[in-house]
Amino acid sequence: MCACRCGIDVHIRTGPDGAPKVRYIEGNRDHPVNQGVLCAKGSAGIMQHYSPARLRKPLRRTGERGSGEFEEIEWDEALDLAASWLKPIRERDPKKLAFFTGRDQSQSFTGWWAQQFGTPNYAAHGGFCSVNMAAAGIYTMGGAFWEFGEPDWERTKLFMLFGVAEDHDSNPIKMGLGRLKARGAKVIGVNPIRTGYNAIADEWVGITPGTDGIFILALAHELLKAGRVDLDYLIRYTNAPFLVNRDPESNEFGLFIRDEAGKPLVWDRVAGAAAPFDQPGVKPAMQGDFPSPSGGRASPVFELMARKYLETEYSPEAAAAVCGVSAETIRRLAAELAHAAFEEEIVLDQPWTDWKGERHEKMIGRPVSFHAMRGISAHSNGFQTCRALHFLQIILGSVEVPGGMRFKPPYPKPSEAHPVPHHGATPGAPLDGPHLGYPRGPEDLALDENGNAKRIDKAFTWEYPLSAHGLMHMVISNAYAGDPYKIDVLFMYMANMSWNSSMNSGGVMDMLRAKDEDGEYVIPKIIYSDAYSSEMVAFADLILPDTTYLERHDCISLLDRPICEADAAADSIRWPVIEPDRDVRGFQSALLDLGVRLGLPGMVGEDETATYRDYADYIANHQRRPGVGPLAGWRGEDGSEEGRGAPNPDQLKRYIENGGFWISHIPDEAKYFKPWNAAYQDWAVEKGLYDKPQPYVFQLYLEPLRKFQLAAEGRGERQPPEHLRDRIKAAFDPLPIWYRPFEEDVVDLAEFPLHALTQRPMAMYHSWGSQNAWLRQIHGMNPLYVSGDIWRAHGFEDGDWASLTSAHGEITVPVALMEALNPKTVWTWNAIGKRKGAWALKPDAPEATKGFLLNHLMHELLPPKGDGMRWANSDPVTGQAAWYDLRVRIAKAPPAAAATPEIEAQASPVGVGPDRVSYGEEW
After folding, report:
1. In DSSP terms, which residues pair with 93 in a beta bridge?
2. By the 8 A CB rule, do 788 and 718 touch?
3. Which helix (H) or strand (E) holds 218?
4. Would you state the pLDDT for residue 806?
5. C-alpha 768, offset from chain centre
6. Which pLDDT does position 918 carry in this prediction?
7. What is the pLDDT of residues 336-389, one digit of tens each?
8. pLDDT, tens digit, for every residue of 520-558?
9. 770, pLDDT greater than 80
10. How far is it, in rounded angstroms, from Cα 196 to Cα 300?
11. In this structure, how many other beta carbons lie within 10 angstroms of the beta carbon of residue 349?
12. Neighbour order of strands in the sheet with 97-101
């Protein structure tokens, strides 16, 4: 229901008809995520469960795609039909299946299913959410924010949020902010829009969208200029002292100088010679120019950092001219960061031993922490902006220390601890390894011998080399175009791609229903699973109806997106508290059944019988590697083991008895300095998080990026096509940089002077709240909020409407004044607008009339720029969708009865909800 994954207690009572009914939902006070705190979504879960929009039975399309016309069929017929479409594909060419899932909690399972099928075409929603944040964090320091880490809420004294709306991790952040405010810590919100967390911040920085990177690097400029960086931390825990090849004639120009064993070298300023970076007693030089053991010259990374960021292009004045924040404010904020980090240092009397065997009597902390999400990630410069933020907190020495940002198990994990992407597809066999991963260089790209993309979304190609989460937003348009090839079946779960989960919504709907010259659909078959009658349901040929979240088993696993906290490893389950009153099945159980019908390895035994009864049986008995399965708690035959151990037949029962979760606290000696703390490394191996200790240093200078640059410069066996060379040279700088969002380079900024953004509200999650009778009263429509400057310049008044135009399209929408907004920005809530006929809403529902999507103004491709090509509207490093680069103009429009464009209504396979929804009256 929501990615926050808060624990809840569901109260059931038998109704007058003898059937059990959900009566009340409250927070589980023992649960580590929310400790009993519940938001509007959680409390309104009753209406989510009893929604009139729930699907009731498997459906087979009878009308044209998009019409919403279906007939109900039985499960065996539905699964046999799906198997009849998929079996020939697997036997002939597995890549002809594209299997992509939305924001679900079972991606380790769905990824395993796709791997066993053998298709290389699998990913989840991260490519259009925040892969820039995740990938930049993993490559730079082994983790990022939210599911990877959190602030040290009890010790932080200065907390900065960048681009954080209210839908991500909302209850833990609210609880943490409450603790910060209670003890007087300062909270600074950096966001063009002052809502939610930014509204309660002590200081709001209303930055211009897409400019966070130059703002952050200007802060770094000031810190370096003043010498306010943690040199001891940089020497011990980062690659700042690593020697970089400075010989322009060398094929390794810009790479690290290494010894014969491949270990990076530093310059030992005492011995006056190069030495391995981890040699005990070495005293690395941080500045200078030194001879390389192989000839030529070399400089430490820190020297290159200082040269780069002390240039005037990163000065507060240069940043202020772009980001809308004054130079004086930038200097003051840099001074506040330095003061909190170094003048308010935290010292804990806790001895610990590092990975080199050196004993430390105390833990030294820098009480500055950051949190950031989609607002800085969903730009075409987002990867480097996220890198810049990680860079900033590292030079302050405020990562994995008391008072700073802390990793949540199973993180930290450096990129080298993750697999590289696999794409070896063989008819009738599983894929050769996990689909997604972290390339180390051009050799890991998913390209065939002719340089063509192996994946339908073109992930891990020269266009998007480090696309660690895939590019779900490009699957439909690529399949429609047959580029790089045609597919036979599109299979999606909980991904509303025809509506709010797509840029260019109208165009995507056209692609889904497009036919070729023979009258056949360009995308031949579409299978979709959802719990509700969403917009995407209308475009599928076969619907496998899912349960609600109260009717299913789920596994919030250490293999996937666990509920860990910085002080503990934890995972949890969801289990059915009520049986479905409709003919629906949990998607994961249905997928296992389909796997049996297809004879997929791991899902059928040698006797061709099912390996697992259902998803619950899979959760308890599947092992990803010996002793390690989806759940870490109560392992072993008697349930006495943690992390590692044989499957326990009573494991789910033990979770239920404990309130649905398992938690194992980290020993005091191991709680901080996790990447370098020997006690933590040993604890992580014991719990099955690692197979062996894996200490590492943070990557301020990212060598894999330089490898791609070298290829673009014409060096190495594998090189990019000519038209991408300049882009790779510019965007793949191994030190964080800032460049203008791509859309700003291809549209007339005088014609489109404004930025347009969306946010998800705290009371909604993706599009799933708009059939919820209680939540609709909070967000039944979404006006376009405009700044006071724009409001007055155009003479807007309450009740007015406006036309909003981009290079891609035009919409007509209601407007509202908001003074706490960047003056060059307009914005609205995402996913409130609905297509008529969807979600069991009446045709005149406010969501279907005054509600609207900004998606109609976007496109998965940038406007033409005169070179004969259409470039992707994505980050060039990871392929993340650049939702927030949108430029628009606004004009007053006549009052209207409904927002435009008005998409023709779809039929509803579940009818229309009642005129009045009440709950409890029948009692």
Report:
1. none
2. no
3. helix 212-225
4. 98
5. 18
6. 78
7. 999 999 999 999 999 999 999 999 999 999 999 999 999 999 999 999 999 999
8. 999 999 999 999 999 999 999 999 999 999 999 999 999
9. no
10. 43
11. 7
12. 70-72, 59-61, 542-545, 525-530, 489-493, 97-101, 122-123
Rounded Cα distance between 102 and 546, Å, is 13
Q: Is the pLDDT of residue 396 over 80?
A: yes
**For the chain, how far is it from start to end, CA to CA, in angstroms?**
27
CA distance 76 to 83: 10
- Whether pTM > 0.90 for this model: the answer is yes
Assigned token pair, 508: 């995507």
Residue (of 567, 572, 691, 565) closest to 631 by Cα position: 572
Tell me the three-class secondary structure of 265-317, residue by residue. EEEECCCCEEEECCCCCCCECCCCCEECCCCCEEEEHHHHHHHHHCCHHHCHH
The H-or-E segment that residue 204 falls in is strand 203-205
Is residue 901 reached through a cis peptide bond, with omega within 30 degrees of 0 on the bond before it?
yes
Q: What is the DSSP letter of 354?
A: B
The conformation of residue 339, written as its DSSP 8-state character, comes to I
Using only C-alpha atoms, the chain has a radius of gyration, in whole angstroms, of 27
pLDDT band at 922 (very low <50, low <70, confident <90, very high): low
Of 123, 98, 28, 176, nearest to 482 (Cα)? 98
3-class DSSP state of 265: strand
DSSP annotation of 120 reads S
Q: 603-620, pLDDT tens digit by residue?
A: 999 888 999 999 999 999
Identify the helix (H) or strand (E) that includes residue 620. Answer: helix 615-621
pLDDT (tens digit per residue) in 41-94: 999 999 999 999 999 999 999 999 999 999 999 999 999 999 999 999 999 999
Q: Please list the alpha-helical segments (H only) found in 349-439.
A: 374-377, 382-395
Least confident segment among 57-71, 406-420, 621-635, 905-919? 905-919
Q: State the Cα–Cα distance between residues 545 and 371, nearest whole angstrom.
A: 37
> What is the C-alpha to C-alpha distance for residues 653 and 748, in angstroms, rounded to an integer?
62
Is it true that the peptide bond before 434 is cis, omega within 30 degrees of 0? no
Closest C-alpha to 383, from 309, 302, 469, 444: 469
Region at 102 (left for phi over 0; alpha for psi -120 to 50; beta for the rest): beta
Long-range contacts of residues 649-656, Cβ cutoff 8 Å, at least 24 apart? 649/620, 649/621, 651/619, 651/620, 652/553, 652/573, 652/575, 652/616, 652/619, 652/620, 655/572, 655/573, 655/575, 655/631, 656/573, 656/575
* Whole-number Å distance between alpha carbons of 521 and 595: 26
Separation CA 773–CA 919 (nearest Å): 10
CA 331 to CA 329: how far, in whole Å? 5
* pLDDT of the residue at 764: 85
Q: Which residues pair with 815 in a beta bridge?
A: 784
β-strand 273-276 against 290-291: which pairing, if any? unpaired
**Residue 477 has which token pair?**
């348009």
CA distances from 43 to 365, 830, 832 (A): 38, 21, 19
In the three-class reduction of DSSP (H, G, I as helix; E, B as strand; rest coil), residue 579 is classed as coil
855 CB contacts (<8 Å, ≥6 apart)? 499, 500, 502, 503, 504, 505
Per-residue confidence band for 766, with pLDDT thresholds at 50, 70 and 90: confident
Give the integer Cα–Cα distance in Å for 301 and 289.
11
Alpha carbon distance 43, 25 (integer Å): 6
Task: List, edge to edge, every strand of the sheet that includes 368-372.
Answer: 203-205, 186-190, 158-162, 368-372
One-letter amino acid at 828 equals T
Burial letters 209-240, b for 16+ CB under 10 A, else e: bbbbbbbbbbbbbbbbbeebbbeebbbbbbbb
> Looking up tokens 């703390």, which residue turns up?
677
Other Cβ atoms less than 10 A from the Cβ of 844: the count is 10
Is residue 198 within 8 Å of 189, Cβ to Cβ? yes
pLDDT in tens, 563-576: 999 999 999 999 99
For strand 290-291 and strand 297-300, is the pairing parallel, antiparallel, or unpaired? antiparallel
- The residue type of 847 is E
